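Hi L.,

As promised, ABC transporter ATP-binding protein:
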Amino acid sequence: MTNYLEVKNLSKSFDSFQLHNISFTLPKGYIMGLIGPNGSGKTTTIKLILNMLKRNGGEIKIMGLDNIADEQKAKSELGVVFDTNYFSDDWQVTQVEKSISVFYPNWKSERFAEMLRKFHIAPTKKVKELSKGMQMKLMLACAFSYDAKLLILDEPTSGLDPVSRDELLQILSEYIEDGEHSVLFSTHITGDLERAADYITYISYGELFFSGSKDEFVDMFRIVKGGTEELTPDLREKAVGVRTFPTGFEALVKTEDTGAFSSLSIEPATIDEIVVFTSKKGDDYE
């Protein structure tokens, strides 16, 4: 199987928000970052993939299985990690295994014990006694214990300290090394994408802005810089977004349009810069 996740023309309407015709594909053996401004539809997309919300249109396949018609079988291939713990706070870690393992025929207790040792999680600890980072690792330990082929994580690094973030990203990178596993994770921390993602899907205000390789994404744009007098009407027209200073400006411009501004300073754009400029919808900001 080439693709572990296929989303086609996914739509969902709320009173004040609409997710409109979102399509993307996550190949086997890769990590995809799902990004966008707050309220853009990232969590809605994940909930629709997990069939936690009823969609208005579109199609979702997990490991080639329809996420509604074949929900139980599809979810047996999934590991899900949210930014908040979904276990009972008073459970000991051993109780987590007893409660979760019954839902997964492929559960391997020896694998769970191995993951606890690797993540330095004491089996007798209660969930509420674990830090947020350790709770995240416990959720991952569960997913690894039934060999989930596809991990879906919603803002997994939010609220983690830098060391825990680094550890989590390393765990995800190791998880896909064998080429048999994939990861979809939403994040607003663009440094996570620079470090771990192979692909990026960018949703902006309910619309698909981009889905493809990380390298393609950053190659689409450049940052053009200059003095105040060099911010010409032509440059403003070509710019996706402009940031002005008392002494000058910087603008996000499509790479294909930078030829006309070769006399100015032109630099590669970071993922963070692309997201910030495009989310401003072309307006100047200081």
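The mean pLDDT is 92.

Thanks again for sending the construct details.

K.
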